[in-house]
Structure formats: C-alpha cells, structure tokens
Amino acid sequence: MNAAAAVLCGLGTWLPPQAVTNDDLARELDTSDDWIRSRTGIGTRFVAAPTVATSDLAVEAGRRALKSAGRDAVDGVVLATTTPDHPCPATAPLVAARLGLGTVAAFDVGAVCTGFLYALATGAGLIAAGTVGSVLVIGADTYSRILDPADRSTRAIFGDGAGAVVLRSGGATEPGALGTAVLGSDGTGSELITVRSGGSREPLHTFGTSGTSGADTGTGGPADPYFRMAGKAVFRSAVERMADAALTAARRAGWTTDDIDRLVAHQANLRILHAVADRMRLPRHRCPVHLDQVGNTAAASIPLALAHAVATGTLAPGHRTVLTAFGGGLTWGACTLRWPALTPA
Ligand code: UT7
C-alpha cells in the first residue's frame, strides 16, 4: 500500500499588535533606519507584550489555520519554536488543549529558524506512517524575550510572530501535496547561533539566583541568557544551504530551476534572499519578500511569508512552490508543493 501524502489545506497567521520601526530602535541604540534597511531590507518588526508568551501567539495562528481549513479538529499538533513558554513541559500540548483539540499527540520541534520545515516534514511523516490523519503544524517564536537589549545587530533583525498550516492525508498528485523534504544539519557550526546559558550545560542556577549575576563558575565565564549570532559566517552558510537544499528538493519533484514559480525562503535578510535566488539562477522576483514588514520571525517566517504572498497575489493556486530555510544548529531544509486554492485566515 502506498503511504498517504500530506496535503496542505489551511493557513493561519498572527502577529502581536505592537510594531517597532527602525526609527524606534534608533532612539534606543546606535543604529539608523538607513543602516538597517540597506543591510537587511527590514523596516518594521512586531513585539509581543510582556504578558504574551509563545503559546499565545501559537494559539491565535493555530485557530486561524483550522478556520482556513474549515476544520475544528485535527489528530496532532507539532510546534516549532526556539522560545517555548517554559523549558518543561513542551508548549504544543498546552496549545492543543487551548484550541480544544482534546488528547491528541502534541510535541515541540527545535530546529531554530528551520523549525517550521522540520515540523512540516515531521507532520508529513506522521501522516505517511498512518499515525495521524491530520496535523496542525505551527511555527511560533517570541525572540524579543531572548534578545540582548543592547545588541543592535540582533534587535534590528528579529521580530515575534506565529504561523500555522493544517496537513491532511491525501493523494500525492493533489494540489498542496508535499514533496519529499530535504533536511540537513551541521553541528560543527553550533556556536554560530546560540543561547549559551539556561540549559543542562550551563544551568542558570549555577550562576546564582538572578541568572545573569555575572558570576564566573569556571565553566566559561558569566552566564549569557541571550541569543547570539555570528552574522557574517551565518550569512554565507545560509545562502549556500538554502539554495542547495531548494535545488535538491526541486530535483526530487522533477522540476528544473525554470519550473520553480515561487521560492518562499526563510526571511532572514533581503541580501540573503537575493543571493539565494542568484545562486539558483532564479529571477529574484520569484522569491516573495515579507521581512520588510515583520523582520526575521524565526520559526514563523515561512507561514507568515506564504500568507503575505497569497494576500498580495504573489502566490497563486497551481504555482510550483519551493520552501527553504536555514537556522541555528546549524540546520537547513526545503520541500516542494503545488500551491493549493485556500484562503489564509
Ligand atoms: O535566521 C537565522 C539565520 N540568520 C541569518 O541568516 C542572519 C545572517 N546575517 C545577517 O543578516 C547579517 O550578517 C547581519 C544583518 C546580522 C549583519 O550585517 P553585516 O553586513 O554582516 O554586518 P557585520 O556583522 O559585518 O557588521 C558590520 C558593522 C559592524 O561594525 P564594525 O565592527 O565594522 O565597526 C557592526 O557592529 O555594522 C555594525 N552593525 C550595525 N550598525 C548599525 C551591526 N548591526 C548594526 C546596526 N546598526 N543595527
């Protein structure tokens, strides 16, 4: 018996209401609208209120994805995030409960900015194995909670948000059916994107009750609970890995580069998007841009970019679409689908 294909049949998104412009950042940090726009393409990002956690964003996006799919139930929830509500338990079961989904399978996936594609591939695998008949796949992150308030290079880039899709069991030739995912990792580059302290290697209690006391434990200096990124090195890897994964996924689908109507890439940096398109010899206009309005929303960036592309008419039913992402780990991934007729919510 052939394994069932996973068919994307619903899309929902949510952004917290508070917008932070480049000029807002420039009032706090040594930066400027001109620098941020010219080096990243970003104009605005959204930041969750102090009382709002990742699960709150995920519930909003999940509810909208279910509405878009015309469903009030699914058999599982896979949630990609780097910023869970708590280190324990996972955030997905809470989200499933708050969405009224009952006692379904629910767990988190951690692959940083590639998280949504890892979660998508996991959801598709659960459907192919017959474990579930449908699954809600969510990418949600609240990076504002892990950014160093004094770090202009990360604060200029990241924003909060959530996006979700519904996958259902179906046929491999249906619109929305996912092709075989391409996933990869290279842990030798794990130090390029980190939140160093707060895990089992450097538990925060080691450093005293404040967690950021600056105490030196002899294990590498003061605690650092913040997100750190070696921007330049990450930039180069992101371009190579996203382009190569996208080309591999397209080849597996039997598509040439010319066949790719839309490349919806993780919205890391406009220069990265252009460099990925150039490396693939794909016209840049086939690569939708959303980061100018929301920044880099980590695990949420691909579903947010998909919804924006549909809303602006850039992505239409039938488009041969490749999704690709890169993030900490290092991790990367890509997958293909023919865009289905659906209304994002
Ligand atoms: O989502 C996961 C994957 N993430 C990515 O793919 C992000 C990849 N990296 C990038 O997008 C870019 O590397 C950044 C946007 C993070 C940085 O841009 P860059 O062109 O690589 O700049 P840089 O890191 O080489 O920094 C150049 C200068 C530095 O000053 P000095 O040392 O030359 O004096 C930075 O301190 O730009 C400075 N700088 C800033 N200046 C004004 C860094 N951030 C800012 C800022 N405003 N916001």
Give a verbal description of the structure.
- Mean pLDDT is 95; it is low at 209-218.
- The protein is built from ten helices and 13 strands.
- The strands form four sheets. It has a five-stranded mixed β-sheet with strand order 1-7-6-4-5, with helices on both faces. The chain has a four-stranded mixed β-sheet with strand order 8-13-12-11, with helices on both faces.
- It has 345 residues and is an alpha/beta fold.
- Helix 3 (54-69) packs across helix 4 (92-98) and helix 7 (231-252) crosses helix 8.
- The structure holds oxa(dethia)-CoA (UT7).
- The site of oxa(dethia)-CoA has 21 residues, from helix 2, helix 6, helix 7 and strand 12.
- The site of oxa(dethia)-CoA (UT7) has 21 residues, from helix 2, helix 6, helix 7 and strand 12.
Bound compounds, each kind once, are: oxa(dethia)-CoA
Provide mean pLDDT, rounded: 95
Helix-strand pattern: EEHHEHEHEHEHEEEEHEHHHEE
By DSSP (H or I, 4+ residues per run), the number of helices equals 10
Please count the beta strands (DSSP E, at least 2 residues each).
Answer: 13
Largest sheet: 5 strands, mixed
Sum up the overall morphology in one term: globular
Distance from first to last alpha carbon: 35 Å
Sheet-strand content, in percent, reads 15-25%
Instruction: Quote the CATH topology of the domain at 5-170.
Output: Peroxisomal Thiolase, Chain A, domain 1
Helix content: 25-40%
The CATH homologous superfamily of the domain at 5-170 is called Thiolase/Chalcone synthase
Could you name the CATH class of the domain at 5-170?
Alpha Beta
Strand order of the largest sheet: 1-7-6-4-5
Structural class: alpha/beta
